[in-house]
Amino acid sequence: MPDEKAFVRSILSIVGDDYATSPEGFYIDGLRPSLIARPGSEEEVQECLRVCAEHKATVVPAGQMTWLESGNPMHSIELMLSLERMRRIVDYSPPDLTATVESGLKLTEFNEMTLAERQWLPLDPPGLSSSSLGAVVSCNSSGPLRLGFGSPRDYVIGMNLVHADGATSKSGGRVAKNVAGYDMNKLYVGSYGTLAIITQITFKLRPVPDFSSTLLISSSQTRNLFELASNNAGSELQPASVVLTHQLPESIGICAQEDALLIRFIDNEAAVRAQVDKVISTADRSQDVSILSQLQADVLWPAVADLSQRKTLVKVSVPISAVRTFFEEIIRSVSDCIASVDLGTGIIRLALDDTDVSVIELIKRFRDSVAKVDGTVVIERAPLEVRRSVDSWGELRSTAALMKAIKAAFDPQSLLNPGKFVLGL
C-alpha cells in the first residue's frame, strides 16, 4: 500500500485499539497482514471495507481463524478481518423453525441454545468444535451427516452481506417461503468469502430426532463391506450416514488401523431399532457387527469428519457407482493414508503425509482418472508448495468464464481473499 500507516490508523479508529493487533510472526501463505481487526458490528465491517477500498487494501475474512491455509495461495493480505466478536442471536422463532444469527457464532454454541427447544442445525463439518457459522456457510462445509440431512446450502434462507466497496445488501429473508426469483443465497454459500462478507445468516432448522444408533461392521475383506452397503442402499432403509473408514488414527481407539463400515440411523426410536435390526439381519458370518454406545459414537463421528492432523487433506467426488473403483485405486496408490468414503454421496476424503512432490503427482493422477466420470479432486488443506504447484480446485472447463465474470462484477478490485478461490480468483 502507498500509505500503510494511514490505513492502519483508519482501521483502528473504527474498531478501537483493543480489537486490532499487529500480527508479529503471523503468516498465511507466506504473507504477513498489516493488521488483524475484530469488528463488533455490521456497521464496523462496512466502515473497514470502505477504508480498504479507498486504500486498495486486500482483505481476508475469517471467523475463528482456523483453516486459513485452505484454497489456493493468496496474492496479498493487508487486513485480516475476524468476525469472532459478532456472535449475537438476532432473532429466533421456534414455532417457525428459523433463526437469524451473526456469522461469528460457533455452530456448537448455536445448537446448544436451540436444543432447549428440541431443534438443531444438522451439520457436522470438519473442525466442528471451532467452526463459526459464517465459515461453515462460506465454505459450504459438511461432514458424515450430509447423506441424511444435506449441506449448509440446504439450510440458508437469508443473509446480510457487506461488499468489497462497503455497500450492504440482503438476500433471501427470514421465512422459509420467500418470493419467487433467483436464490442469491446459493451464489454466496461456498464462495469462500471472495464475493462478499457474510455478517448475518438466517437458517431453517430441523426438529431434534428422538434417537440415534451407529452400527460398526468390520470384515477381513473390504469388498464384503462395499457389497453390504450396496445391498442396503437399494432397500427401504434411510440412514443418516453410511461411511467406510480406512486406517483411522489409533488414538481414536475404535476401528483404528482397519477398514470398517459405519451406518448411522437418526429418527424416532422404533424406526431406528427396526432399521438397525434389518442391517444386522443382512450381514453374513464373515462380518463382525456391533452397536456402538452413544459415547463411542460421539467420539467416532467427529474423528471421521476431521480424519487427522496430517499435512494434506484431499476430497475426491465421484458418482456413487464409481466410489468403490476409485477407492481401491487410491489405496493401491497410497498405502499409508487415512480415508473416509461416504458411500451415500460419493465423497472420498484422504489424509496424507507424503512428500510434497509425491502429493502433487498423486493429485494430478487422480484428477486425470476421475475426469473420465466427471469427478473432481479438491485440495482441502496442503502445504504451500503443493498449492502453488496445483490448483486446489482443478480445471473448471465450461464454467471458467462465468466464474471470472462473477468475481469481476462483485469484487472488481479483487480485494476479498484475492487468489484463494477457483482459477486463482
Provide a brief overview of the structure.
By secondary structure, the chain is α+β, with helices and mostly antiparallel strands. It is built from 13 helices and 19 strands. The strands form four sheets. The chain has an eight-stranded antiparallel sheet, sandwiched between helices.
Describe the structure in your own words.
This protein folds into three domains: 4-84 and 413-424, Uridine Diphospho-n-acetylenolpyruvylglucosamine Reductase, domain 2 (2-Layer Sandwich); 89-207, Uridine Diphospho-n-acetylenolpyruvylglucosamine Reductase, domain 3; 211-389, Vanillyl-alcohol Oxidase, Chain A, domain 3. Strand 17 and strand 18 form a beta hairpin. The radius of gyration is 22 Å and the shape is globular. The chain has 13 helices and 19 strands. It is α+β, with helices and mostly antiparallel strands and 425 residues long. The chain is 31% helix and 23% strand.
